[in-house]
Fold this sequence. Notes:
With 294 residues, this protein is mainly alpha-helical. The chain is 80% helix and 0% strand.
Amino acid sequence: MKKLIVFLFVGLIAQLIDGSLGMAYGVTSTTLLLTFGIAPAVASASVHLAEVATTAASGISHWKFGNVDRAMVVKLIIPGSVGAFVGACFLSNLPGDLIKPYVSLFLLMLGFYIIYRFLVLNGRAPSASGKQWSNKQLVPLGLVAGFLDATGGGGWGPIATPVLLANRTMEARKVVGTVDTSEFAVALSATIGFAISLGWEQVNWYWVLTLMAGGIIAAPIAAWLVRKLPSHLLGVLVGGLIILTNVRTLLHAWEAPASVYPTVYSLIVIGWAAAVILAVRNGRKGVASKEMAS
């Protein structure tokens, strides 16, 4: 019973973060399953199976609250699904750990840029004449994000969200809602790939159902939060999470001493908190300026 409550809570928290910031459900859930000694392929399969339900609930919620760019979803789901299916089928033979540090370095730089964009530039609204994403850009993004999502148990949101946010043609809430909605097809494709390569008998349905239940409860709450959070604050929250998760990946990849972890994490959290406070202050100044102008 205790494990049931723990996994239900983990599924709820993971989806609350994922649905409001566009990432972390797979990473959080997979990490927990691995700590219980479950094989990486089985853990990833279980998480993706749970995500079929949680991403469906999240996508419907984001759609209802107007957080989705429909054209972008259509462009992302096909390459994302292909990448996820291929990654799932060949997970045991792929050197995912070898390429993760390089991807994390790229995402780490994007995380700092996103905080700069939404903090220093104050998350200005994108202009109508801004250059839109083309298929030539979205196809490789979908392929890579879907592929790494299946091989690493989480990667669609951590890759797609910061890359889309780096382009100033989309609102932050639209990026989060679009990435979460398109993730349904990615999770479904990965699940089919795992079913072919592993078979259903290796999936732990206990983990799947508890993670699924927690995620379904959190999905509409997260979509509502995205609708209500100011764009500049949402951008800083996403940027900080990107930095934290990718620094963690790099520390593990570089086999840093255990004593280094608390110091590094503390510095990141302090800097992140300062950025959030500054973003809130900037938002209040912006509101006050508009009221004076009117």
